[in-house]
Amino acid sequence: QAKVDGRNCSRFFNDGMNRVAQERVALESALREALGDGQLCLHYQPQMFCGEGRPLYGVEALARWHHPRFGNVSPERFIPLAEECGLIGAFGEWALTEACRQLADWRSRGIAVPRVAVNLSAQNFQDVGLAVRVAACLRSYGLSPDSLTLEMTERAMLDSAEGVQTSIHAVHSLGVHLSLDDFGTGYSSLSYLHRLPMKELKLDKSFVQDLDDSPAARSLIQSVMHIGEGLGLTVVAEGVETQSQFDFLHDRSCAVVQGYLFARPMPAEQLERWLDERYPPRRSGTGAGVLGL
Ligand code: C2E
Ligand code: MG
Ligand code: MG
Ligand code: MG
Q1: Residue 140 phi/psi, 5° resolution?
Q2: What residue stretches are annotated with the EAL domain (predicted)?
C-alpha cells in the first residue's frame, strides 16, 4: 500500500481500487508537484473584432500541463481534479499571476495586447479574498484593471454562496471585466445575467460548431446576439473553425471571434510571432518593428 501525500485528498491504493482510480490518485499528487515545479504554463489564443482588419481584442489564457511521465494532460481533466482535491485556489492564483506577468512583459516590450482573459473556477469566486488578490496582482504588475477579464461559467455565476456574489461585485468594482463563458450550456438564468455586472458573453463553441448543419443552433445564436445587444454585452464567439461559421457570425454583427480559423492557443513567444505577422508595425518608439528588423 502506497500512501499518496496530500492535505485534502489523501488516498490509499488498495486491491479494490481499479486502474483508473489509481491513475487518478497518481495524477492528483503529480498536479500538486506541478504547481511548484514549472510544469504548468499558459498558452494564449487571440480574440479579434469581427470588423475591418480584425483588430486584436485580446487574448485568452489557457492552462497547459506537461508532465514528464504522463505527457500533456488536458485542462478538461486536471481542472476538475484541482477542484476536487483543494488545489484550485493555488491554481487560480498561479494562472492570474502568470497572465498578468506576461501581459506586463509584452507591454514593456511594446507588444500591444489590449487585454488578457483568465479562466477561473466557481471555487475561486467563493474565495472572499479574490478581489483583494486581483487588485494586488494588477498593482504589482502596473496593469490597469480593464486590462484583465475574468471568465466564469454559468455555474459560478449562479452559485448562491455568499462569497461568489460578493466577489463578482468586488471584482467589478475594481474595473476588471467579467465574462460569462460557455454561454448556453449551463443553467442560464437571464434574470441573473441582467442583475450581475457582466461585460461579455462567450457563446459556447458547441453552438458555433453546429451552425452549418443545425437551424436550431443558428436561431439560438441569433437569440444570444439579441440578448447581448439588449444588455449591452460584448458577444464573443468561441470555437470558430470555418469561413462559413465566421461569415454567419459576421453577418449577425457578432462583436468578437476566437477559434482555430484564426489561431490556436499558443505559447507566448509563438503568439508574439503571430502578432508580428498579422499586425505588422506593432512596436512604437523603438522602430524595430516598423523597420522589420
Ligand atoms: P474554455 O474556457 O471554454 O476554453 C475554450 C476551449 O476551446 C479551449 O480548450 C480552447 O483551446 C478550445 N478552442 C479554441 N478554439 C477552438 C476551436 O476553434 N475549435 C475547438 N474545437 N476548440 C477550440 P482547452 O484549452 O482544452 O480548455 C478547456 C477548458 O478548460 C476551458 O474551456 C476552461 O473551462 C478550462 N480551463 C483552461 N485553462 C484554465 C485555467 O487556467 N483555469 C480554469 N479554472 N479553467 C481553465
Ligand atoms: Mg474560457
Ligand atoms: Mg468557453
Ligand atoms: Mg469550455
Answers
A1: -70, -20
A2: 24-279
